Structure formats: structure tokens, C-alpha cells
Amino acid sequence: MKFFALITFGLAFASLSAVAQDSQKPKKKKKVRPFAWVSPLPEGAAKQLPKTMKHGTFKSPSMGIDVGYYIYLPPGYEQSETRYPVVYHLHGGRPGGEYKSTTLVKFIDKAIRNGDIQPTIYVWPNGGPMSWYNYPQKENALGEDIFINETIPHIDKTYRTIATRAGRGIQGFSQGGRGTTRIMFKYPELWGSTAPGGSGYEPEKRIQENNGAESETVVFAPGYNAWDLAKVYADREDAPPLHPMIWVGTKGFNYEYNLKFMKYLEELQIPYEKLIVPGATHSSTQIYNAKGLELMQFHDNNFKANLK
């Protein structure tokens, strides 16, 4: 019996040792797709998108290279001469890529086909190497300028958008929520509907409090953050009204900081709406699964009110 007990103990010890050695092995890092201003989906993934979802490019006047984007054209677009409202969705993550977050189109396509919202154009732009920030320290890294000064004019010129504030919306999630917040407060005259989601307001606060430094190696211009730009907007006497919707899941790692930013907006007397999704993690897909229609109808109702 002692012999068998010793064997059993030996096997158990060997098993535990293997687990311990396994746990000490470095975990494989998630591969980051190299940045490119044109970043389409792989062919197989692209085939899963609605047929009215197109990949497009334009030649950047400032950089002299092509810039990519995805665009969803609502059913009946090709057969009509109608102009449509447009929503820009700013992807999360860094670096940028227009392929990110494109799976959200399935919710949009369904809502339009079901008649839950009016036919609307949606665009997924490329945010550049620093995802929606201007970062002159890197080559071809003025992501905000490319979006505002080049992508939007190209979309308005190429497609039948309602090319005015009344028919133009912006939203984004995570890093894209940060970009949405900064851009809507910096350029309020462009947007008739705004909705930052799951935004990283903690790193934005860090940038504010450290003279532009997000980290030891990443430093932005002083004042170039969501908190300072909200204050600048609030102090403007001629600022067009925004009334954004902030959307976030209660299980998201930055949920508490989203609540802090909402309180900050109240202090600045900037009105807003909120879409809080119980149990949702830091995932735009989870939030769309649960309450995406409310977000889409938020934009839809704004467009209808603006375009009366």
C-alpha cells in the first residue's frame, strides 16, 4: 500500500510541478496587426458583411497616400436619388484600422430593414497610427486632421449624404469614444448627433494632469484631452448644442470613470443622456446586443428633429 501511495504522491507532485512550470511560461502576446492607412478585412470576413457594405479609399491630399474606410449604404440607395443622414463610427484600439468594429453593421442593417430607424449611411473610418489623435512626432500620424479635413469631405462629395450638421452624427467606443468626445467638443458645428461609448476617460484625465503625457513615451499637446476640451466648449458663448449620449456597460473596466465624466458634464452644465447596460463588459457588441436599438434610435430621433 505504501508503494502505491508513494507512486500516487509522485504523480501528483509531478503534475503540480508541470502546472507550476506552465504558469511561469510567458503568455503569448496577442498579435497586433501592423498599421496601414488602408486596412480592409480578410476576404472571408468581408463576405460576411451585408452586400451594401463597401470598402473604399481616397488619396490623401496632405499625405499623398491612400486612406481606407468602410461604408454602409442603406437598401435602395442605388435605386434612388435621396440624400441620407450619416453616422461615423470611430473604432477602438491603437493603432487604427477601418476594419475594426465593422461587425456592428449587422445590427444597423437589421434595424433599417425592420423599419426601426430611417435609412442611414454609416461610415467606419481609419483613425491613423494613434487612433483619432494628431501626433506629429510620428510620420503620417495626424489622425484627427485626416478624419475631419479629408475623410468627411470625401464621403460628402462621393456619396449622397446630408452634408450638414443637421444630418451628421458621430459615435465611437473605447479609444473611439475618447476620439468622439474630443472631436465633438472641438468641432461642435459639425455634429447634429453625438454618442461617445465606453470611453477611456481615465487616460484622458492622466493626459490633462501631466501636461499632455499619457505615458513616459506618449505625450500629446497640452490641453488636447476630453476633460479640457469639454471645459473649453462649455465656456464658449457661441457653442452649438450637443446633448450627447454616453453609453457604457456596468462591467466595463472604465465604467466608474464614465460616471465621473458624466458628473463633470453636470458641473459644466452640459446636458447629456446616458445608456447604461447592466452586466455588459467593455464590448460594443454586447451593448449593441442588449440596447443597440436605443443608440441607433437616439441618432435617428436627432436627425428627424434637426431636419424638420
**Can you count the beta strands?**
8
**Proportion in β-strands:** 5-15%
Q: Mean pLDDT, as a whole number?
A: 92
Q: What is the helix fraction of residues, given as a range? A: 25-40%
Oligomer: single chain
Low-confidence stretches: 1-26
Name the shape in a single word. Answer: globular
First-to-last CA distance: 88 Å
CATH topology: Rossmann fold
Roughly how many Å is the radius of gyration? 23 Å
**If classified by CATH, what would the architecture be?**
3-Layer(aba) Sandwich
CATH superfamily: Alpha/Beta hydrolase fold, catalytic domain
Structural class: alpha/beta
Question: What series of H and E elements makes up the topology?
Answer: HHEEEHEHEHEHHEHEH
Whole-number count of domains: 1
Number of helices: 9
Which CATH class applies here?
A: Alpha Beta
Describe this structure in words.
There is one protein chain. This protein has 308 residues and is α/β, with parallel strands linked by helices. It has one domain (42-306): Rossmann fold (3-Layer(aba) Sandwich), CATH 3.40.50.1820. The chain has helices spanning 2-24, 43-46, 105-113, 143-158, 175-186, 201-209, 226-235, 255-267, 284-306, and strands at 53-59, 66-72, 86-90, 121-125, 168-173, 193-197, 245-249, 273-277. The strands form two sheets. Strands 1-2-4-3-5-6 form a six-stranded mixed β-sheet, with helices on both faces. The protein has a two-stranded parallel sheet with strand order 7-8. Strand 5, helix 5 and strand 6 form a beta-alpha-beta unit. Helix 5 (175-186) runs parallel beside helix 7. It is globular, with a radius of gyration of 23 Å. Residues 1-26 have low confidence and may be disordered.
